Fold this protein.
Amino acid sequence: MRILGIDYGDKNIGLALSDRLRITAQSLGRYQAKNRKEDASYFKSLVKKHQVTKIVIGLPIQMDGTEGVRAEKTRIFASWLENILGLPIVFWDERLTTRQALGILHQQQMNGRKKKKLKDQVAATLILSNYLESEREVSQDEDL
C-alpha cells in the first residue's frame, strides 16, 4: 500500500513514507545503522507497521552520469534489504538531493547541527516525492 523512501548513508539512513494513496511523502525520521541483525529487525518491523509494499532508494549518480563508490555501497545495501524484506526496490537518481535538502533547511534558518541531523530525512522525502510525481505523470500519460 505504501512506499518507503530511503536516503542511504553508512551511518545514517533518512526515511520517508508515502500516504496510502501514494500522493505525498512525509518524513519518517532517520535511522542510525547498527549491525545487520538489528538493522534487519528494524526494517522488518517498519515495513510491517506501515504496510510498505515497495521501497525507493536514492542512487547517488555522479554529475557525469556514472556511478562511483557511494552508488556501489547503495546497491549492496539495496540487495541486502531486498533479500531480507522480499519487496521490490526501485532506484531513483538522487543527484543534488542533499544539496536541495540543505537549501531547504537553510531557508528555515536552522543551525549547522540541526541541519546535519535533518538533512538525511529531508533528502529521503525529496527522493520519494520526486518518485511519486513521476509515477503520477506516467499514469496520466497512459490515460491519454
Q: What stands out?
A: Helices lie at 36-50, 69-85, 97-107, 112-143. The longest strand covers residues 25-32.
